[in-house]
Amino acid sequence: MKFTAAQIAGILEGEVVGNPEAEVLKLAKIEEGTPGSLTFLSNPKYENYIYSTQASITIVNSTFEPESPITTTLIKVADAYGAFTRLLEFYNQVKLNKTGIEQPSVISDNVKYGENLYLGSFSYVGTNAVLGDNVKIYPNVFIGDNVIVGNNVTIFAGAKIYSETIIGNDCTIHSGAIIGADGFGWAPTPDGSYKKVPQIGNVVIEDNVDIGSCTTIDRATMGSTVIRKGVKLDNQIQIAHNVEIGENTVIAAQTGVAGSTKIGKNCQIGGQVGIVGHLTIGNNVRIQAQSGIGKNIKDDEVLQGSPAFSYGDYNKSYVHFRNLPKIVSDMDDFMKNSRP
Description:
The chain has 340 residues and is of the alpha/beta class. The strands form 6 sheets. It has a 12-stranded mixed sheet with strand order 8-11-14-17-20-25-28-31-34-37-39-40. Strands 9-12-15-18-21-26-29-32-35-38 form a 10-stranded parallel sheet, with no helix packed on it.
């Protein structure tokens, strides 16, 4: 879609300096701007690029005054960064505003769905599923029987939502995510083999949750695996059966949380963290990347290491660890010199 400088200024309540009919159809970084692109300048560090950029339109702060000739049309706003973010949101809404049911796709018996449904081709919706208003289901998505999906939910291509899963409002599930697969439940037998423990629970995802690509959330053995409202999960995360993640907690990629662990509110968990099962992690906890958590954690702790311990103590210990060869050498020299 094409937009003129005048149209964009109207959306952002800005002032056009230059050609109000200048048109753009794509976005770009200021150093990579080409004709027909829109960019922005908010950080003075990048000001030199505005004199060479080929972008047709540039959003700038209202206080900006060029010191040399420029070819780009300016849109002056109170906060260039905030305005560009608003524009990105607007652009994304337009780009993702699909409706209709593409063919081939399958809607099974007794499915209920609200207004403005988009169902991409080769998608499947199981028996008794309920889909809210403004649900966007991209191609090759599987939605199992008795799944409930709230309003304003987007499920990107290739995601798999197993039966009985409940998804709240305003959620986004990215490509390749698997919600509701069996938990890792196996009971050892006398002959050394393992017998499957049926996983008959479900997954409950509350409002405003974002789930990254190829992340897996297992269904509970009994009861529910619960992802509370506002949680943000990165790509390639493993959430095991009967885990509960508290409100507004964020978890980075390749983290694994073992079964029945409860994580509190407002936690920040770095990439490649491993958390063993049946733990309780408090609120406002921060865990640095590649840490291993093997015990309960109280509120407000900051941890690092494997096994993890206090972040401050870890840093102090790490200084000594890096100096260990010199310390050993000094000790050897001391022992040699102290011999009679």
